[in-house]
């Protein structure tokens, strides 16, 4: 089995708009191509439909094993239909909020679909519909959603004692996707450009739905992977975020990106992507460093990769636990709530300590 560097490079070459079709064709016709690894990692990174669409666009689908091409075609068709339903659902939500003068913008995948930035909307896999709403209107929006067929999931005690970037997730009765109503984009991380008021004030109303500006979409795409998805902690990449970045880079002024790269967290993101997407360097100072070399080492040594990520996950969780212990000691209401919910909390603690179902 090849190391992950080989598989990652193949995925990157397929998704890229600058890699050579001739060279990719040569790679795909090699007898040692690990198709199972391609599917496993493509699925884990949520880019199987994008892989299929890019190969189709480049007229290279005939190089895939027939059963794999059929499988990817089926997944892509399902995702295309799902995305069409999600857009219609988003239009319905937009109409609901507009009719009650609730300011809003759709975020992340839904916004990208509304921007029509993909050659085929089946390329992007979407989980929830994320919507940013001003803090003073979010409870009204939440109540409206409840009145129109969206049921909140059962919240845990954390909802009452800790700050969150969105209200409890809501599951629809008659639609495709759950929704999350955001009051901000990050819990504690602060990036002034993406403060809620800035995103809302500069929203793009020319798209199919109200969405952030193209620059804000790009910045949020990067920081969502780095902060919310812990890319900064694990020093890793996400091919779904990478592909979104590639699409959005084509739509944005390079000077805006150059300015963002003055921030270490942005530069780190693009440094890691440049390991597999060489043209992302843009002649800027994005050269491999100790962090990126260590990441390549991990990808080449799977057992160490798994061990290191578990190590980071455990100590990240331990840091959270220490904060909870302090609150348990100092806050009687929190202490009472924890004791009442101790069975669920102990089970959650065991799963985290032994890293069950950990996405590594």
What does this structure look like?
The protein has about 350 residues and is mainly alpha-helical. It folds into 2 domains: about 5-300, Beta Polymerase, domain 2 (2-Layer Sandwich); about 305-360, no CATH class. It contains 18 helices and 5 strands. It has a 3-stranded mixed beta sheet. The model is unreliable at about 355-360 (pLDDT under 50).
SSE topology:
Elements: H1 4-15, H2 21-28, H3 35-44, H4 48-57, H5 66-99, E1 105-106, H6 108-115, E2 129-132, H7 138-147, E3 150-152, H8 158-161, E4 170-172, E5 179-182, H9 196-201, H10 214-228, H11 231-234, H12 239-249, H13 254-260, H14 264-273, H15 290-300, H16 302-330, H17 332-340, H18 342-353
Parallel strand pairs: 2-5
Antiparallel strand pairs: 1-2, 3-4
Helix pairs in contact: 1-3, 4-5, 10-12, 15-16, 16-17
Key features of this structure:
globular, 2 domains, 58% helix, 360 residues, disordered C terminus, Beta Polymerase, domain 2, three-stranded mixed sheet, mainly alpha
Q: Just give the CATH class of the largest domain.
A: Alpha Beta
Order of helices and strands: HHHHHEHEHEHEEHHHHHHHHHH
Question: Structural class of the secondary elements?
Answer: mainly alpha
Number of helices, where a helix is a run of at least 4 consecutive DSSP H or I residues: 18
The Cα radius of gyration reads: 22 Å
Low-confidence stretches: 356-360
CATH structural fold name of the largest domain? Beta Polymerase, domain 2
| CATH architecture level-2 label of the largest domain | 2-Layer Sandwich
Rounded to the nearest angstrom, the distance between the terminal CA atoms is 18 Å
Q: Give the tally of structural domains.
A: 2
The outline comes out as globular
Tally of extended strands?
Answer: 5
């Amino acid at each position: 089995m090849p190391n992950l560097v080989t598989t990652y490079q193949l995925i990157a070459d397929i998704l890229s708009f600058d890699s050579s079709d001739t060279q990719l064709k040569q790679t795909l016709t090699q007898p040692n191509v690990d198709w199972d690894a391609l599917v496993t990692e493509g699925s884990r990174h949520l880019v199987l439909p994008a892989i299929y669409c890019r190969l189709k666009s480049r007229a290279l689908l005939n190089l895939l094993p027939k059963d794999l091409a059929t499988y990817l075609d089926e997944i892509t068709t399902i995702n295309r239909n799902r995305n069409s339903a999600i857009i219609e659902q988003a239009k319905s939500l937009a109409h609901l909020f507009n009719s009650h003068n609730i300011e809003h913008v759709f975020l992340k995948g839904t916004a990208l679909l509304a921007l029509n930035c993909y050659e085929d909307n089946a390329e992007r896999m979407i989980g929830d519909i994320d919507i940013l709403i001003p803090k003073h209107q979010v409870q009204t929006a939440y109540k409206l959603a409840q009145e129109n067929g969206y049921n909140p999931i059962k919240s845990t005690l954390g909802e009452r004692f800790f700050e969150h970037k969105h209200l409890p997730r809501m599951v629809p009765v008659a639609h495709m996707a759950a929704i999350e109503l955001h009051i901000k984009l990050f819990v504690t991380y602060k990036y002034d450009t993406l403060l809620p008021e800035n995103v809302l004030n500069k929203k793009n109303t020319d798209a199919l739905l109200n969405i952030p500006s193209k620059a804000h979409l790009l910045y949020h795409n990067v920081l969502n992977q780095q902060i919310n998805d812990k890319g900064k902690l694990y020093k890793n990449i996400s091919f779904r975020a990478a592909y979104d970045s590639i699409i959005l880079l084509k739509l944005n002024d390079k000077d805006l990106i150059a300015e963002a790269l003055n921030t270490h967290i942005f530069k780190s993101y693009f440094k890691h992507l440049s390991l597999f997407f060489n043209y992302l360097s843009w002649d800027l100072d994005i050269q491999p460093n100790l962090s990126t070399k260590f990441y390549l080492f991990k990808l080449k040594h799977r057992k160490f990769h798994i061990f290191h990520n578990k190590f980071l996950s455990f100590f990240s969780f331990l840091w959270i636990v220490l904060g909870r212990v302090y609150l348990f000691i100092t806050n009687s209401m929190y202490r009472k709530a924890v004791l009442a919910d101790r069975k669920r909390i102990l089970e959650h603690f065991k799963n985290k300590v032994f890293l069950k179902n950990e996405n590594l």
